[in-house]
Amino acid sequence: MLGACLVIVAAAAGYIGLREAPPESAPLAATQIDLRRDLTPGEQGIYADLRVAYEEIGFALQAGEPLPSVADLAAQGLPPFVADNSAAARGGHVWRLERQADKALYVGQKADAALAGSFL
């Protein structure tokens, strides 16, 4: 029994010692940020919320619906567009929809710069 345990431990140690080191990540350009290290916790939360909202907006557009307004997104309860305690804790952004030539942008203007920056 003890011999089997030693064989398992030796095999695991050998595997760990022989495996390759993970590849180094490419250096970021001056205009890029690392989402893991360069965002505050509030900004990371907003980013996660925006990824979910992006999917929901995409589903609406695929269904033939018009681009939802900020009020529509808030009425659906989609963070970060809902003005609730969570939004306040993440910087209290005020959201608006800006339309440009062939684009539409949701802009989140920060209310508390200490918690989070603005989003586009």
Commentary on this structure:
- By secondary structure, the chain is mainly alpha-helical.
- It is built from 4 helices and 2 strands, in the order ααααββ.
- The protein has helices at residues 2-18, 41-62, 70-75, 85-89; strands at residues 94-99, 104-109.
- The model has no long low-confidence stretch (mean pLDDT 82).
Explain the layout of strands and helices.
Layout: H1 2-18, H2 41-62, H3 70-75, H4 85-89, E1 94-99, E2 104-109
Antiparallel strand pairs: 1-2
Briefly say what this structure is.
With 120 residues, the chain is mainly alpha-helical.
From the structure above, extract its key features:
single chain, 120 residues, mainly alpha, two-stranded antiparallel sheet
First CA to last CA: what distance?
61 Å
List the uncertain runs. Answer: none
Helix/sheet category: mainly alpha
User: Mean pLDDT, as a whole number?
Assistant: 82
Count every helix, treating DSSP H or I runs of 4 or more residues as helices: 4
DSSP E strands, number? 2
Strand order within the widest beta sheet = 1-2
Proportion in β-strands: 5-15%
The H/E string reads HHHHEE
Report the radius of gyration as a whole number of Å: 23 Å
